[in-house]
Design brief:
Elements lengths: L2 H20 L1 H12 L13 H7 L7 H18 L7 H20 L26 H14 L8 H40 L5 E6 L6 E7 L3 E8 L10 E5 L12 H9 L4 E6 L2 E15 L5 E12 L8 E4 L6 H12 L9 E4 L8 E2 L2 E2 L1
Parallel strand pairs: 7-9
Antiparallel strand pairs: 1-2, 2-3, 3-4, 4-11, 5-6, 6-7, 7-8, 9-10
Helix pairs in contact: 1-2, 1-5, 1-6, 1-7, 2-5, 3-8, 4-5, 6-7
Length: 368
């Protein structure tokens, strides 16, 4: 999740564990420790792009490190808060709960975390909320700002009541997202079954800033199918599938390169590849695409959000992040909102894969 969400969640947990002893200082300590796992980015200048992908949300998000940190920091923090009579057990519990809730909320996103490092580098991802979701974050932020004004011990009950409401609303939203995902997943599964489509695996994730419109990616080996459906649609409503050829042959002779192996691991094999002038363009299909309209009548250009260029002849960092230009963001969000309400014509059109450097847009097949 984004840093604001992690800070707010950390502050809320800090208040729950230490609020009665530290007052508003509990919010600040929770905020600090809530963002601590993501400080692995301070090592990024020492790494190339492939190592950053492998390192971020790795060891710092593991059960091993959070337990170790809780044990090592318990006594120093208890000593720091000696006047408030906070025991090492409570201080260690504070560190563990703030750290673990940070990791848990990250697990709800597509990016995933290496929870079981160093025993396994497999990333855990439940794909039920977008990496930025105001409906989850705002109740926490409003609650924390509100309760910060209740500073006296006599007002502690009001602080506790507000905290319960804030955490309760955010937790309820998480539960809703899981239910909404189940509804959408059932609809995608029913559509594929009616079409008698065979596939090896399938994943669903919400579209940006909401949990009402869902995106499914279906792995059929040489091609990946992408479709959308709103939770308001009946399970019998057909899905319009866009087919993205994987083009495995693009990687021929380069499968053993460290950067390519890292990308395949990071994307959990949800990748497509295309040649370009300096080497290879690769994209992770899990994270969705930015849609732009108007280049041609009746055409929508899909620019995949997580993409890289691999340049085998580059001197230093051979892997470069390639982010699409987010032109027309306001129009895209408007169309997304209308698609949630069932207006497919505002979202669907003749699709092209665009944004690959040095190549023309590629028209993509569609299954109605």
């Amino acid at each position: 999740m984004d840093s604001i969400t992690q800070a707010a969640l950390g502050a809320a947990v800090g208040e729950a564990v230490l609020g009665k002893k530290l007052g508003n200082r509990a919010l600040l300590w929770g905020l600090l420790f809530g963002t601590l796992p993501d400080l692995d980015v301070i090592f990024f200048p020492l790494m190339d792009t492939a190592r950053r992908l492998h390192f971020h949300r790795g060891a710092s998000h593991s059960l091993f490190i959070m337990i170790l940190a809780s044990f090592l920091l318990a006594k120093p923090l208890a000593k720091l808060w000696k006047l408030e009579k906070i025991t090492p057990t409570r201080a260690g519990t504070f560190v563990f709960l703030v750290w673990s809730t940070h990791v848990l909320i990250d697990c709800f996103t597509v990016y995933g975390t290496s929870v079981f490092w160093p025993f396994s580098e497999a990333r855990i991802a439940f794909n039920n909320i977008f990496i930025i979701d105001p409906l989850y974050t705002l109740p926490l932020v409003i609650t924390l700002i509100w309760l910060a004004f209740y500073r006296t011990k006599k007002q502690q009950k009001k602080r506790t009541r507000l905290l319960v409401w804030g955490l309760g609303l955010s937790s309820f939203y998480i539960a809703l997202s899981i239910g909404f995902k189940s509804i959408a997943s059932h609809g995608f599964e029913a559509d594929l079954a009616r079409r008698k489509i065979t596939y090896t695996r399938r994943m669903e994730a919400p579209t940006p800033f909401n949990t009402l419109l869902w995106r499914s990616v279906v792995d059929r080996g040489d091609e990946l199918w992408v479709g959308y459906r709103s939770i308001f649609e009946l399970s019998a409503s057909p899905v319009r599938w866009t087919i993205y050829p994987r083009r495995s042959e693009t990687l021929s002779g380069m499968e053993g390169e460290r950067e390519i192996k890292t990308l395949k691991w990071f994307s959990q094999e949800w990748w497509i590849a295309r040649p370009h002038a300096e080497g290879i363009w690769l994209a992770d299909m899990r994270f969705g695409e930015f849609r732009t309209f108007g280049a041609k009548p009746g055409v929508v250009d899909s620019r995949l959000i997580f993409a890289w260029t691999f340049r085998p002849q580059a001197d230093r960092d051979r892997l470069g992040n390639f982010r699409p230009e987010f032109r027309g963001s306001r129009d895209a969000l408007k169309r997304l909102s209308l698609r949630i309400l069932g207006k497919r014509d505002q979202w669907e059109a003749n699709p092209r894969l665009a944004g690959i450097p040095g190549t023309l847009p590629e028209f993509l097949p569609v299954v109605e």
